[in-house]
Amino acid sequence: MSQDVIVGIDLGTTNSEVAVIRDGHPHVISDENGPILPSVVGLDAQGKLLVGRAARNQSILAPDRTVRSIKRRMGQDITVSLGGEKYTPQEISAMILRSLKQRAEQSLGHPVRKAVITVPAFFNDGQRQATREAGELAGLEVVRIINEPTAAVLTYDSHPPEMERLLVYDLGGGTFDVSVAQVEAGVVEILSSHGDTQLGGDDFDQLLFDHVCDRFQKDQGVDLRTIPVAKSRLLHAVEEAKKQLSSEAVVSITLEFIAEKQGVPLNLVQEIGRDDYEQLIEPLLVKTLHCLDAALTDAKLSAYEISKVLLVGGATRTPLIHRMLTERLGRPVLAEIEPDLAVAMGAAVQGALIAGVDVGPVLVDITPHTLGIATLSRQFGDEIPDVFSPIIERNTPLPATRTQIYTTAVDNQTAAEIEIFQGEDEDTNYNTRVGQFLIEGLAEVPAPNQILVKFDLDLNGILRVTATERHTGLAKQVVIDSMIERFRTQERAGAVERLDRFFESEADEAATEFHDSFDVEALGAEPAQAASVDPAWQNALDAAHALIARAENAERNASAEDAKELRALVTDLRQAISERSEETIRTISAEVEDLVFYLQDQ
Ligand code: AMP
After folding, report:
1. What is the mean pLDDT of the chain?
2. How many helices (H) and strands (E) does the chain have?
3. For a tag on the chain, would you pick the N or C end, based on fewer CB atoms within 10 A?
4. What's this model's pTM, rounded to 2 decimal places?
5. Which residues line ligand 1 (CB under 6 A)?
């Protein structure tokens, strides 16, 4: 049985993933670097093949030994050169597929021979055929090629009680694709598809890059675009800054010794606010809305006839996209599945359907409530107290980090009370108060003095709230670790109901289990495929990866010495992960946790 497992593969332009059905639900397989494999192939100085992160890391220094974005060349009668040899696009793609096959085999403990592979809806026959060939070269029988938007829809629900029309908005690194799909009784039909093959997150990076370069040139008189190493360092830094701006209101980019002027080294230190960034990218997002209109016109539908909006692709984490789509379509967008994992998960669902295996609805751990703080609002000269200002919206997947800027209400205000609430009402009196703290010692300056309030909600539902005076860096933090209990007990019925609504779960048995544990892994019927994956191990792995992400975040603001210590611990943790040593992972995780906590408290 397990030998017949059909894995689902998202062979992306920027990143690729492989997923299987575990305990009745799709699950993306991680290695020690997490679930995402960058779609980059390279050769190291000794000619050894590198696939994924290692290849991407060397691409700045060794572009001649690295191939990126091969998906854009699939189906073309060309070759690309890698370390002096010529390879067809199919061969390069096969290296990525082979790497994913190995990852799946290591996780499952048996050979994998069959796969469903996804392609963009706009791929023509030649491109699809080339994808199939790549699979075969990698030793995989490609049992089906499916469209990415179809896969995304399958991840949600392919058996809605009534016919549904969904809009899939897919914005990746290099391409944009919007599709209208109709789903009924397990059949997903794509009614229309539009897109722009030259629009993606990479273009946002380019805009931010030019913005930073222009500012640097104005201040320092040096154009970084003309210095190759500075250019690649900055491109990398702006991509990181862009990602942070999806959850932070302000980010800073610091690059030491980025250039030289008359023998004097120059450092780059720039702060970028989310507002400025949003102004830069808005024209590109307006273009995506034109495509969306075209897709609706082709499907002969109006916006109100769309029942759900699904977000796919890493770049859809950009909050402005959520706002623009919600406004254009008049309904909230569904973002509760990791946008860069949805397609692989859908491919795994398709694989299971072909293999005749039952799959339940897909669930992820989400915040069942909006979390935010109480604020004082001024409207037409009147002061309105107790206004709820949401920071993490309900249905956001965990872990989640969001920051908002607030301001003091009066001049010379030296303290501010941060009152934390959960709930959906605009008036905090109708929401549940979950904590409170005071930030004191603020600078005696005229209002408005900016205070950044950061919410970190981890996989266990533990909420860390940090308030930082932007002007001085003065910070205060509180940890509220009863959140998960609240979700488990007080609010679980509501959470189940909401999730049932999303996924139209018919499995009463599964719902009962969900009541008992609030553990999505516990959902589902008998282990169907891939029973050999140990869920406890996978949980430990997921927790360790979440911790590594937090540590990498904390490292940015740490002193050189603390950053070094943290990096060493993270290296040990990665080592322990690759050795699959649960005991060591636990011990090192505790140390990393302590240090991260200490750094956040600084
Ligand atoms: P994909 O092709 O779906 O893997 O998407 C890759 C693109 O998503 C790249 O341009 C990434 O920089 C971008 N991306 C990934 N994470 C985020 C994020 N948190 N916010 C904004 N863009 C992101």
Report:
1. 81
2. 15, 25
3. N
4. 0.65
5. 12-15, 172-173, 200-202, 239, 242-243, 246, 313-315, 317-318, 340
